[in-house]
Amino acid sequence: MSLISLQDDLKSNSYPGRGIIMGKTPDGTKAVAAYFIMGRSDNSRNRVFVEEGEGIRTQAFDPSKVTDPSLIIYAPVRVMGNKTIVTNGDQTDTIYEGMDIQLTFEQSLRCREFEPDSPNYTPRISGIMHIEGGRFNYAMSIIKSNHGNPDSCNRYTFAYDNPEAGESHFIHTYMHDGSPLPSFEGEPKLAATLDDLDEFTAMIWESLNEENKISLFVRYIDIESGAYETRIVNKNQ
């Protein structure tokens, strides 16, 4: 798989939907996690990311305009010890609770399916990062309908042990804009990272479609110490 430019990939796609990026900085010292959300409806666009403990949650920017909170209000990022969970829905809690009773990442997600938002049936994308003893690994998952058939659920998990410096994997909900929206296909994309947190954050945010982007979360975690820095960017201010 060839290494893509995340900047070029995002700029060429007006609607990748929600996306997760996980990897390692070029200098090999930091684990990288990013999550962004986009939206086409007023309900979807009426959101911001806010910090909650060591993670984040979505929140209505204008509570009076919320029409259906069920699929837009959730905790995309939660931390359990040396594990960081990132997802595009309330399956963050499912993974957290499953791992708390010794289930694996994959086992925890067995009880979940794609979102019930006919006709799109938005995939549930999830990632988990594990840092321990100066080593770092991560896994990603996508749960989606079988070519838009809501009676058939496909599950894929991808695991990356001791990832290469300067590389990340990028998975998103939709291939591109459309009606209905076409679900992501194939393996997560192999994408380059940057050493500088602010530069990486700005690159992603500026590459997302101006009309559709809503919020972005980026975190760099020191692989030796576990210390982290976070950036949150919201279109709604």
Architecture overview:
The chain is mainly beta and 237 residues long. It is built from five helices and 13 strands. The chain has helices at 6-11, 42-45, 91-100, 105-108, 197-207; strands at residues 19-24, 30-38, 47-52, 55-60, 77-80, 83-87, 124-132, 135-146, 149-161, 167-172, 189-192, 213-222, 228-234. The strands form three sheets. Strands 11-10-1-2-12-13 form a six-stranded antiparallel sheet, with helices on one face. A hairpin with a 2-residue loop joins β3 and β4. The longest helix has 11 residues, at 197-207. The termini are far apart. The mean pLDDT is 97.
Outline the fold blueprint:
Blueprint: H1 6-11, E1 19-24, E2 30-38, H2 42-45, E3 47-52, E4 55-60, E5 77-80, E6 83-87, H3 91-100, H4 105-108, E7 124-132, E8 135-146, E9 149-161, E10 167-172, E11 189-192, H5 197-207, E12 213-222, E13 228-234
Antiparallel strand pairs: 1-2, 1-10, 2-12, 3-4, 5-6, 6-7, 7-8, 8-9, 10-11, 12-13
Short structural summary:
The chain has helices spanning 6-11, 42-45, 91-100, 105-108, 197-207, and strands at residues 19-24, 30-38, 47-52, 55-60, 77-80, 83-87, 124-132, 135-146, 149-161, 167-172, 189-192, 213-222, 228-234. It is mostly beta strands.
